[in-house]
Specification:
single chain; Rossmann fold; six-stranded mixed β-sheet; 20 strands
Amino acid sequence: MLRSNQFTFAYIDAEGPAVVDANLSLATNSVNLLWGDNGSGKSTLALALAGAIPHLVRGAFSGSVYWNETDLTLNLSRGISCLVFQDPYLYLRGQFVSDELAFIPSLFPPSKSVANLLRGIKIESLLAHLSSGEQQRIALASSILSPSPIVVLDESFEFLDSQSVEAAMAVLREGQERGKTIIVIDQRLPKTGISYDSAHRVQHGRVSIQLPSPAPDLPKIRLLSPGPELLNVRGLSFRYPHSRIDILEEAMLTVCQGESVGLIGPNGSGKTTLCMVVSGLLKQDRGLIELAGQRVGLKDLRRYVKCAFQNPNSQIFADTVEEEIQFGFYYSGLDRIELEKRLEWVYSVLPFNRHQSPHDLSYGQKKLLSLIATLTLRPKLLLLDEPLASLDFKTVQLVHSLLQNYVDGGGSILILSHRIDDLASFCGRMVAMDHGKIVSLGFSNVGKDS
């Protein structure tokens, strides 16, 4: 039994406690949900339940957390818990897939459910070259089959396609049968195929027993009829060093002025690599990229195309939220009056303190900040890689408003996702990708107001 008694915790220099008087009991052999809005305190509570607070995270606490008869707040109990972070790469310890799996002897030979979860992942692959979804699948398998009796999964389904979610749930149930207490942290309605033995909501640091309810649908972003062709990609191919296969293979794509295009595809299909090539962060091996009818190189791509990455930690660098936002504005060429006007508007919609360190924000808040900071650069084409992952519904509504404002100003968007329901309200056209190729096109909401 894992339980907390009146547990309260406040980070150093924080305005108030992140967790307040938390009381909950989680049974052995169970899969449990902790859910709540971005910044609600659910990740902090999970750190306490894993025994990391107060030993590895500094701050003031009261109350206790027990695993059976052991008070986890008094002693650091090594090996009792395993925590997979929102950024799965932080959990992985090896360089190659084979290195990571070698840490878990029970993976050999793998069970049917584990083999299904790891399908399509080459054992000789570099972990750094895998998609976030593939990295999450490896981290999930490794953590569930570790000897630790407590497993905490922080937003560990966000980057998984629907097939991988079903496979991951089978592995979770296998872990439950092994006697584990599994805690899944989320902020939206549980994904298809996931069921829980208990559900606790965390709101402003306080815990209550409550199931999440479905979020209402957002209106579709208003799109005018597409203008002239802005981006034209033809025959694009790319292969990472030390790899024997092309991640992109003769990929073709167009985006018109004022369009919002969704690029849908399963984990490892090449979406993120395409994004990095189109934004000038990687150079293609073969193929042509044109902007507004002109063939362009890396320099022009980096100037006119901007990307908000899937992992915000790879993008945020400033000491304060304010500095992070202002960086883009100061390089946008705006006059002082327009600059101050836009800054005032951004600060008015910002749902967190602009003077705090961005590194102290929750993962979902960092995602929002990286999107806002990218928008301030005023790109001709905005690339968004899984922009809604780890966002609560309020933040999704705000993102919807920000992108509507950008499109109204003539901006063009390419949104990458493995979940078609995330794209329905944001895109006028869908493009499907698999195995590095654009395999099909679909159209909806083009030239319509809603």
